[in-house]
Structures are given as structure tokens and as C-alpha cells.
Design brief:
Elements lengths: L1 E2 L20 H6 L7 E4 L3 E5 L9 E5 L17
Antiparallel strand pairs: 1-2, 2-3, 3-4
Length: 79
């Protein structure tokens, strides 16, 4: 696990199982779009929402693209 306290310590994992080139979240997970990362590992990234709806609003996004949770398989349960 890699918890990040500031942007100077960001480590980006670029090994993706599946990425959609048009997906905003895939681009954030790949480091192509900057974000305030809070956590990242080989399976997911967590970052602060740019338009928070609560004092603490953090998005956890899997590195593998899912167009819908309906597409998730048993092998994805750990994500």
C-alpha cells in the first residue's frame, strides 16, 4: 500500500489490465490528468474530488476500466 500525503511523493503504476482512452477516471489513474492522490496501489487509486459534496470527499477508482459494475466478474471482488 502507498498512502500519499503530498504530490511530491506520488508514484504512478502504469501497468493496466484494461484502460479506456476516453475515460476521465482511467486518465487520472494513469497519471495523465493531475489529481490530489491520497492512496494508490496496483489495483486502484484514491483522490480528492475536484467538486466535493462533503468536507471529505474521496473517490476510489480501480485501475482496470469498468463501464458498469454489471461487467465485474468474480475475479474482481478484491477490487
Amino acid at each position: 500500500m502507498q498512502f500519499l500525503s503530498d504530490n511530491k511523493n506520488m508514484i504512478h503504476f502504469n501497468a493496466f489490465m484494461s484502460m479506456n482512452q476516453d475515460c476521465l477516471f482511467c486518465k487520472i489513474a494513469a497519471g495523465e490528468i493531475s489529481s490530489e492522490l491520497i492512496y494508490e496501489d496496483e489495483a486502484c487509486v484514491a483522490f480528492r474530488d475536484i467538486n466535493p459534496q462533503a468536507p471529505t470527499h474521496i473517490l476510489f477508482v480501480p485501475r482496470e476500466h469498468f463501464s458498469s459494475l454489471d461487467n465485474a466478474k468474480e475475479s474482481h471482488k478484491e477490487i
